[in-house]
Amino acid sequence: MSGHNTPWWEPIAHFVAHILVGSLIFIAIAAGSIGLEKLVDYAASSWELSDFTSTVLHGMAHAILLGDCVLFGLYLISVMIKTAKEYFK
Prior knowledge:
By secondary structure, this protein is an all-alpha fold. It has 2 helices and no strands.
């Protein structure tokens, strides 16, 4: 436990706060990626985009979402490690 006269629950509270904020950021980026994909679908059907352009833009939406997922996973791992270190000081 922490030896600096901090309550036992403080690392847990920090963990929960970091997870909530990180999750909100993840959701915002994921929503942007999903919105981009829907916009590309609409543009492809309404404006008759070429297959190449549609494929590239869909690929970008998928890359954004994949990157968001990977970075969120790494963030969760780093927050868990930081919390464990803080809790068991």
